[in-house]
Amino acid sequence: xxxxxxxxxxxxxxxxxxxxxxxxxxxxxxxxxxxxxxxxxxxxxxxxxxxxxxxxxxxxxxxxxxxxxxxxxxxxxxxxxxxxxxxxxxxxxxxxxxxxxxxxxxxxxxxxxxxxxxxxxxxxxxxxxxxxxxxxxxxxxxxxxxxxxxxxxxxxxxxxxxxxxxxxxxxxxxxxxxxxxxxxxxxxxxxxxxxxxxxxxxxxxxxxxxxxxxxxxxxxxxxxxxxxxxxxxxxxxxxxxxxxxxxxxxxxxxxxxxxxxxxxxxxxxxxxxxxxxxxxxxxxxxxxxxxxxxxxxxxxxxxxxxxxxxxxxxxxxxxxxxxxxxxxxxxxxxx
Length: 335
What we know:
- It is a single chain.
- The protein is of the alpha/beta class.
- It folds into 2 domains: about 1-30; about 35-320, Purple Acid Phosphatase, chain A, domain 2.
- Helices cover about 25% and strands about 25% of the residues.
- The chain has helices at about 5-25, 45, 50-65, 85-100, 120-125, 170-185, 205-215; strands spanning about 35-40, 70-75, 105, 135-140, 145-155, 155-165, 190, 220-225, 230-240, 250-255, 270-275, 280-285, 290-295, 310-315, 330-335.
- The strands form 2 sheets. It has an 8-stranded mixed beta sheet, covered by helices on one side. Strands 1, 2, 3, 11, 12, 13 and 14 form a 7-stranded mixed beta sheet that branches.
């Protein structure tokens, strides 16, 4: 399923390497086109369609290098019932495939993974013990209820920050997020939540609080990923951080949850191709289970200037974040 840009990049790389073999080069060229894989809400696979998650995760291992995947984000709801151990066992075995292959991935607890404020079952299977030996893993909060992953890809520093689902977040939760974002302010921040956008692509109550308390207050935040509601959509905000009335950054807020389609999602995953040179991210969906591009959401024919719900290209700023402007407290949304 490689896109033309990857084939072209591979050809150009081969040409440069051949030239280097004759002329000599100081270093090999950097591959500036890569994929971040994103999956969410596979809970139906834990109790009814176990063959899908087994096939899906095995495919990821077998195709990780070929597809040039550098990182995997998971935005919650491993299981349907938080205290059903058989469901956790299915998901534990499926994700061990990624562990054994040492694939870099981050996870969080969805609303089906917790019982109120009790996320003990989630922690038993996906707590910090599962990840704390990984080089990219950092800043575990309440036994991996929150954490961050540091990824340096194609010369660009990223921090993926995760916080699990809670019916009512504590002040300490927002403060932890702010502490992490301050600590890694020189990295492009991609925030991962479970509940952030509604099915219509508007921020939920939880999403609005995160937006006000964490997104607007940190200029390095440029993207938010979420699941929970049945949808594939996006909300885009342009934010003025220095108070001159002009936008200094764009924050792309994306939701992708396919569980309302056949077989609880039919194995669809979101593939996001980061193109550093051209400053774009191309997003599409693919299911290795049925070997098909484009989920059933594509039939809605909802399009905007960037494309459809599942297949779109957005401009993206890959420059290293600057320090906060003097006296900065919170950015403002501008048109």
